Amino acid sequence: MFNGSRKYSPLPSSPSSSRASSSSSSSSLPAAPRRSPRALQRHSSLLTQYSSLLESYTEGEIRQLISALVERYSQAMNSGGHELPLFPRTGSRRKRARARHKPCALKELEVSVSELGLGYESDETVLFRYCSGTCEAAVRSYDLSLKSMRSRRKIKKEKVRARPCCRPLAYDDDVSFLDAYNRYYTVNELSAKECGCV
User: Fold this and answer.
1) What DSSP string describes the chain?
2) 9: confidence class by pLDDT, cuts 50, 70, 90
């Protein structure tokens, strides 16, 4: 495996001579390929820094990456000329993932009666409780089978939901209010009282 013969020297008597002999003996061994630290590559070009990374991608993946970057840059230029960061921060990505997978829960919001969209004109405010969140944990065999039937086009025209939805299981008491013309109204099943996956 080694070219040439290796010479052995007698054991050294002092520590300084042992360091010298070990460095000379290690220099005769073939040097193993070592990766230099990233800090040393700070002043090299971007192409040099990321060449090993790009070599791990296929040609199609590189084209897809470049087209995504070009599209993102053109969107940034069209929206006012401010450049967007090429890669979003992982913190914001995690926040979006957590927001997508929050479990089904009851939330509340204080709104005016006019904002409810029921056709009443009134400045009175009500506490509107609603259901929000995902139901990933509540997926059952029915949902999986229904999704499969839809993907195989066995169910074509019917409007069916292939996963459970976060909806009210019970409603609050009726809400009464006066409109802008001093007429008295009562609305039932307006706010959610309990939420669940159905």
Assistant:
1) --SSPPP--PPPSSHHHHHHHHHHHHHTSPPPP-PPPGGGGTTS-HHHHHHHHHHTS-HHHHHHHHHHHHHHHHHHHHTTSPPPPSS--HHHHHHHHHHHTPBPEEEEEEEEGGGG-SS-----EEEEEEEESB-GGG--HHHHHHHHHHHTTSS-SS---SS--EEEEEE---EEEE-TTS-EEEESS-SEEEEEE-
2) very low
Domains of the chain, with CATH numbers? 105-137+164-197 (2.10.90.10)
The structure's pTM equals 0.47
* pLDDT greater at residue 149 or residue 160: 149
Question: How does pLDDT run across 10-63, given as a tens digit for each residue?
Answer: 444 444 444 444 444 444 555 556 655 555 445 556 666 666 666 777 777 778
Is the CB of residue 198 less than 8 Å from the CB of residue 165? yes
